[in-house]
Amino acid sequence: MSYKMPKMEHRFDINVVGEETGIPWTGTFLYRRPTLSERSLIEAMRARLSGDLRTVDPLIDDFNVMIAHLRWTLKEYPEWWKAADFGGNIWDRNVIEQIYKKCADFEEDFRTKLLSGNPKDVDTKKTDSDSLSTPA
Questions:
Q1: Predicted pLDDT of residue 57
Q2: Residue 80 to residues 5, 33, 56, 86, 124: CA-CA distances in angstroms?
Q3: Can you spell out the DSSP letters for 112-129?
Q4: Distance between CA 27 and CA 29 in Å, rounded?
Q5: Rounded CA gap, 114 and 122, in Å?
Q6: Which pLDDT tens digits describe the chain residue by residue (136 residues)?
């Protein structure tokens, strides 16, 4: 069956210098909105990383939220991202924050357009099936 659905992907570039290391990080990423199954996997990973403890430092908990979300939603990325354990082995928090912000901005824009009530506001693509995304 063919139908139109809202655009679920966003390609973006980053070019940021690490605040701690001074290393320049550049690359192109493809973000895909998470499915319900992926949302479950994101939360499970976040809980595993944080130990689901209330005593986890808020900055670490935020980092864990970002890493878990990016692990399941970035479908294309530079080789350095994969080599750095999908962001887990990077010293520069600002790099993770910038990548996460690009994804969060897309989500916010998507919701704003979707809730505007104007179907023309939402970019659409024609698809032949409702295929699920695959983990990175």
A1: 84
A2: 32, 22, 28, 8, 31
A3: HHHHTS-GGGS-EEEESS
A4: 7
A5: 6
A6: 454 556 899 999 999 999 999 999 999 999 999 999 999 999 999 888 888 667 778 888 899 999 999 999 999 999 999 999 999 999 999 999 999 999 999 999 888 877 776 666 666 554 444 444 445 5
Residue 43, token pair as written in the block: 């939360």
Helix (H, G, I), strand (E, B) or coil at 74: strand
Element (H, E) at 105: helix 93-115
Sign of the CA dihedral running 89, 82, 75, 34: negative
**Six-digit token pair at 25?**
């990080």
Rounded to an integer, what distance in angstroms lies between the CA atom of residue 106 and that of residue 110?
Answer: 6
The CA–CA distances, whole Å, from 55 to 33, 50, 70, 106 equal 30, 9, 23, 31
| Amino acid in position 135 | P
Lookup: tokens for 119: 């179907």
User: Using CA atoms, how far apart are residues 88 and 130, in angstroms rounded to an integer?
Assistant: 31
